[in-house]
DNA sequence: CCCCGAGCCGAAAATATCTTTCAGAGGTGA
DNA sequence: TCACCTCTGAAAGATATTTTCGGCTCGGGG
């Protein structure tokens, strides 16, 4: 088999440094200068025009073009494009260094990157750890429930409100209780065919367990969304949906990642219910959308 | 001191598809054609000259250049370079391909996987599209503000509450207003040294714009967290933080992914402020943690 | 020591590509 | 209906890239 030695025609995408080494001996002095610059700093060179690169290397435009040709590209333009690709490549290569904790003196850009990464991780963990059988059972119960009560306090209260808000939008009767006393008062009204959902990261929040217990004892279907499936709350839950517990740091309290995790679970629950009640959910969704339309002023552009 | 970093972002590195989605609504018809082509086939477009892309999309060179500008590049040449980089990127990380929409008859396990994937994507897009200069400015203002008012209605209201709750925890005076009338009533009390934050995905929610406007006109520092940085709300915002706009489907309303995006932005803001006020934030955090401890009953087992 | 040829190199012309300008098309509100 | 305003593409103008072409250096004879 023939070895196409010097002038490989296919525009090499990645292994450019190697190509430079291979071809260097067959290059003239000025060409080597150019090739070296290109191999040494692809990103930097990608930002330069022919003229710029010629000046940088102390040569002429013609030489730059000749070098590009020797490297297998039709012209400098194409070499430059390949360079940009290469730069992007090795840019991504050094990305995963963001795993460290967020520090007090991190620049704001790092904070964004780390936070996004952490939350992505939390989502992946949650999805992996979610018991789809339990979820399916919870969905089935919610889709047919006469009414749905949601309990949550503190940060979890917002998640509960989110869930109730969405369920209302697809025509279900759902209510998020924020006041523990009122929650218990309401819970004792529930009976078989009703549903109660408790949200607590710790799994041991008394204010949330009490109403769930009341609902459980009166025969309602109960669900617990918690990061501690072995906690007290599970005693009174027919179905337990587990949220993930991410490492926390001084600057990043547990509430933050648990919220992300809880929201994913709640979203899954919601979509599941929406699927099951599609006939009524779809029109209800668009109806609520249209009812809000007039609240938006026309764009200014 | 005013720097010229007003609202345009640095030449976007990667998340181009996200940027296209964010900016698409503010684009003219022909520009959308170009943007679509670019987002749909970065590699293919990178191989084309201005004229080529103009012909492919059935528009003119001028339109192509205009689109490139809108996307944040100095001209088409630079867009093309970025495109080449993007192409190289997705060349390596060959598609995970869970990208399909959630269907009515998807099994529950698929729903979980798709939802988790979509939200991860949303997080990545948001992080990539967030202007850290604007964020830094917002953080600086928040850290020194006398009081902070947050406006949001509907789904955004929960995000607002989340932000206010967290800021309170580190000792800042923050309040989330849910009632539009009360919000305006309160906003007119603000003055220089105070801060107002409006959260609206559409960027055109009157109930949120009005209080922000009142605050803006009275000299408070104003921030808008929106998916439409070109929307009316930005008129009255000193700093605009852009959230990402994910594709939505019938079963997955925009509110869902916009919430994920908004929460990330809000978290970044919070952490930023916590860094800046570390001396007081750290003790405040642990104090609020301890105050809640007695609310948790001991775990079983 | 001088002359000659071969190939390398860069200045500048020629070409391709990108950017800007400008005037007409098409739509919108009064 | 008319005035106005924005979008759009054709063509002029500006840059960047490629090609041409002649000078240059270097090494080997005469």
Q: How would you summarize the topology of this molecule?
A:
The structure is a homodimer of 301-residue chains.
Chain A: H1 16-23, H2 29-40, H3 42-46, H4 50-57, H5 61-70, H6 76-93, H7 108-129, H8 132-144, E1 148-152, H9 155-169, E2 174-177, H10 180-187, E3 195-200, H11 206-217, E4 221-226, E5 239-242, H12 254-276, H13 278-293
Parallel strand pairs in A: 1-2, 1-3, 3-4, 4-5
Chain A binds a DNA duplex (30 and 30 nucleotides) through residues 28-31, 49-51, 54, 59-66, 75-77, 301.
What does this entry look like structurally?
The structure is a homodimer of 301-residue chains. In chain A, helix 4 crosses helix 5, helix 8 crosses helix 12 (254-276) and helix 9 (155-169) packs parallel to helix 12. The first copy, chain A, has helices at residues 16-23, 29-40, 42-46, 50-57, 61-70, 76-93, 108-129, 132-144, 155-169, 180-187, 206-217, 254-276, 278-293; strands at residues 148-152, 174-177, 195-200, 221-226, 239-242. With 301 residues, chain A is α/β, with parallel strands linked by helices. Residues 1-12 of chain A have low confidence and may be disordered. The longest helix of chain A is centred in the last third of the chain and has 23 residues, at 254-276. The first copy, chain A, has 13 helices and 5 strands. Chain A binds a DNA duplex (30 and 30 nucleotides) through helix 2, helix 4 and helix 5.
């Amino acid at each position: 088999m023939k070895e196409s030695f010097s002038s490989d025609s296919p525009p090499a995408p990645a292994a450019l440094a190697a190509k430079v080494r291979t071809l260097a001996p067959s290059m003239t002095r000025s060409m080597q200068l150019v090739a070296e610059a290109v191999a040494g700093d692809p990103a930097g060179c990608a930002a330069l025009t022919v003229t710029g690169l010629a000046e940088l290397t102390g040569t002429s435009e013609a030489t730059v073009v000749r070098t590009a040709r020797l490297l297998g590209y039709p012209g400098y333009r194409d070499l430059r494009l390949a360079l940009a690709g290469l730069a992007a490549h090795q840019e991504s290569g050094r990305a995963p260094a963001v795993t460290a904790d967020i520090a007090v003196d991190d620049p704001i850009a790092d904070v964004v990157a780390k936070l996004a990464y952490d939350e992505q991780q939390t989502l992946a963990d949650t999805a992996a750890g979610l018991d789809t059988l339990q979820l399916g059972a919870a969905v089935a119960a919610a889709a047919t429930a006469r009414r749905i009560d949601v309990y949550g306090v503190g940060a979890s209260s917002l998640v509960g409100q989110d869930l109730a808000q969405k369920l209302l939008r697809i025509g279900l009767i759902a209510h998020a209780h924020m006041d523990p006393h009122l929650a218990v008062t309401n819970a004792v009204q529930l009976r078989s065919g009703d549903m109660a959902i408790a949200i607590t990261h710790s799994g041991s929040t008394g204010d949330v367990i009490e109403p769930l217990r009341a609902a459980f004892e009166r025969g309602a279907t109960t669900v617990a969304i918690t990061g501690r499936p072995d906690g007290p709350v599970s005693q009174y839950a027919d179905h337990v949906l587990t949220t993930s517990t991410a490492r926390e740091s001084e600057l990043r309290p547990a509430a933050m990642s648990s919220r992300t995790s809880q929201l994913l679970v709640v979203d899954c629950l919601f979509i599941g219910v929406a699927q099951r009640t599609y006939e009524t959910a779809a029109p209800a969704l668009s109806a609520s959308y249209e009812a809000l339309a007039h609240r938006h002023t026309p764009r200014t552009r």
